[in-house]
Amino acid sequence: MTKDFLFEIGTEEIPARFMAGALDELKTKTKKLLEKERIAYKSINTYGTPRRLTVYIEDLVEVGEGLIEEKKGPSIKVAFDENGNYTKGAQGFARGQKISVEDLVIKDTSGGKYVYAVVEKKGENIKNLFPKILPELILSLDFPKPMRWGYLNIRFVRPIRWLVCLYGEEIVPIELEGVMSGRMTQGHRFLGNQNIELPNATTYFSKLEENYVIVDQNKRQDIVWTQIQGLAKQEGGIVKPDSKLLEEINYLLEYPTALCGKFAQSYLKLPEEGLITVMKEHQKYFPLWDENDKLLAKFITVRNGDERNLNIVTQGNEKVLEARLNDGKFFYEEDVKAPLDGDVEKLKAVVFQEKLGTMYQKVNRNQEVASYISDKLNLSPTAGVNVLRANYLAKADLVSNMVYEFPELQGIMGYYYALHHGEKEEVAVAIKEHYKPRYAGDSLPSTTEASVVAMADKIDTICGCFAAGLRPTGSGDPYALRRQAQGICYIIFAGQLEIDLFALAEASLETYEKQGLDMDRQETLIAIKEFFKQRVANLLEDKGASYDIVNCVLESNWNNIFETVSKGQALMQFKDNPQYSELITAFTRAGNLAKNAVTIEVKDDLFQDDSEKILWDKFNKMQETAKPLWGNQNYTEVLEHFSSIKPYIDDFFEKVMVMDKDENIKNNRLALLKTIVDYLSPLGDLSKLLS
Question: What is the rounded CA–CA span in Å between residue 440 and residue 437?
Fold first, then answer.
């Protein structure tokens, strides 16, 4: 017999940012519990609103499936004495399995004959099982910030107020710190009945919807987005998708009704990013744009309720937003009264990190590293000046009123303040973009100047943290060093920048030594290299390289990231060559033999067979024609040129015995193979490639 099963955990309002993870975890753990107890079902889903976490299982069987287990005991030599009687060892084994010794059976195995206990486990009825395991399931859920309430000992995301546990129409009794399960749930806090009786599990969704609660978060989100889009069109505007904001709004309400508010046109004179930050990050509003991508003085939000008194709710939201925008207007006007470079000195009072000094010291370190990068990239004098100016001003907005109030705007406000005070566009853009990429999938700096300032800032943070012992661990990366290192790798690759990553790290560490930071420079540099190696591996994989190619190219010198990724991409393309597999096999064979080489000098007069002479001649000609390809980093064509000598390698192996009895001949042949193998070593260790 099967019935639908409902389990609802009723709580005080759960923070929206916890909901998606909690529902995923609840579903995963419920599945594992059912699988462990061999309880069959058709489907399982989890649902949630701010006031409830729900598990709904379709066609759940009442009793778990039985299980017959065979448990291996002692060998028959140990289980029986010379008279054929059971030994104490056999009796103890049977007792441990809770069966009589006479019920033991003998089975043949590859290791001989052993006694086995055949134990039958009956499936448990969920009415007996669930009261034991469901309270444990609740308390096993992991939240970033659980809490206690009253005098209770349990911790949960928010106080638990009710429990519903129904198998069909039957209540499954569960108790958790005085809260007993039943069939009573609660509707919308203000619009619905707070004592809704559920006759059975299947009425759950309809009963709650009658009481202004849409439990299914997917259905609720579709309603929210449809309402927002419809209202935007009605208002003559366009709303841009924002999945993160939409999800957060969805988990803030139980019954959505979208509304459109307005604010004064005069606020549109403020930087657009500031307006959007206030609306989206602080008020959870969707801004509206016109067809020309110009911000409108309108917003859309969603209330948790119906359309009653919607005009009053709209006015309330407008007043709240006006107060926030008025603050922003005041802060902006105060900030632009003084030039941006006047704020740099104030950074002496802003701590970057206790062990690493102030933000002012960071600016000075960044100046040295940015100058180093500019020189290595051979930037024009004008670009070099722009880099140093942008770097000098990049952190100045941290002491502005706007960034103090809205930290998300750091860099962005610096851009506007720089332009307001007459700085070059190139300088302002570099200030704005030097934090990029801020997150996975974010855009990269759009100019060379911005890229240089961004790399200098990021490598300073990475090297400083490593030198001070503030390194990422498996459980934490508080300074986002992985993201910053990945950002450097992507900036270098996308810009095709010829910069030595190891030398860049050394240049940054040198600035800290000048500052007086005590460190083991060599150990720190080794740790930084190993840290970046994984980031380069991630970049290679992101660009399509298989794991064997990643391992291959990282065995060579990978300090030039663009060159390293280019090698990986060339090997990926070469995999499509029909000769790839045979060439790698031949190369691996040559490589294994070449390990025995004692010299790299190849002597023509020691060749004994025409195949040796021909191979050496063809290799030298190929090497000469491919020389410009190495210089142009055209590694795909290098590989194709190399593949042209494969027939001669095959012929060589077929015609000669490499390990000749004559030491001179043997060493000459090994030197020949080593020379050929070493030719491709700049690409990596090709022996790691899978044929």
Answer: 7
